[in-house]
Specification:
288 residues, mainly alpha, 12 helices, 0% strand
Length: 288
Amino acid sequence: MNEANADRPLRGILIILGAVFCFTVSDAMAKWLGQTLPVTQINWIRYLVFVPFALVLVLRTAGGRVRVRHPGQQVARGLLLAVSALLFVFALQMMPLASATAVGFVSPLLITALSVLMLGEVVRAARWIAIVIGLLGVLLIVRPGTDAFQPAALLVVGSSATWAVAVILTRRMSGHDPTATTLLWSAVVGLLATTATLPFGFVWPSAVDWGLGIALGLVASAGQYLMVQAYRFASASMLAPFSYSSLLWSTALGWVLFGGLPDNWTWVGAAVIIASGLVAARPERKRG
């Protein structure tokens, strides 16, 4: 992090709140569009907007550099992100926005666990306990074996898992390629992957659908940009708790747009996941 920016944590917090808001709004737009367009097509439109956005970012911040040191890992990251988005939007069509958001909070816990398997990081007992408790929180929301069980929640878990692996790949490549270049590779790979799905169910969008789809792409791209900017001003551990503000936004948008509110068990499960996530995100104390 740049020393000149290191003393502006408040700016970083405000920017990350803006990024989280953008992501939540784009999810709500995707859920709304799912009433008239196939899920694969919604993601295609999102990437159609994201590619030129990422290209402009590369030209402005990375000197037009598009070559990368590990193209195979970049392609894998792009595919994982595309699959993650696809699974999440599928889930949104079958469950409330806030409930899907709450289950998605398991991502940081999965990232912590995968960092041991894929990066060889050392995770102490307190974090493992937090991970287990967080998974129990997911079970409180999903409630398998009961009438309240929502199979779509498993799609969110799958989305979180693919996202977590993509984040681990990002850590592996950190320092090798500019952030903007990585975003461009992810955008192009995602566009190619979603384009390949179009022959399996294409519906010509109405003018309103095109407008909402383009707006979705712009809002999601703005969220990506704001997230990158936030980490210039504050550390990851400082910003992590503020990502949970998405539950408030998703609850409000879900109520206004779709007339649904999460039940009490969803709130309890979300609180458990958030608490365990905060514990897992705490930096380890260095031993003397």
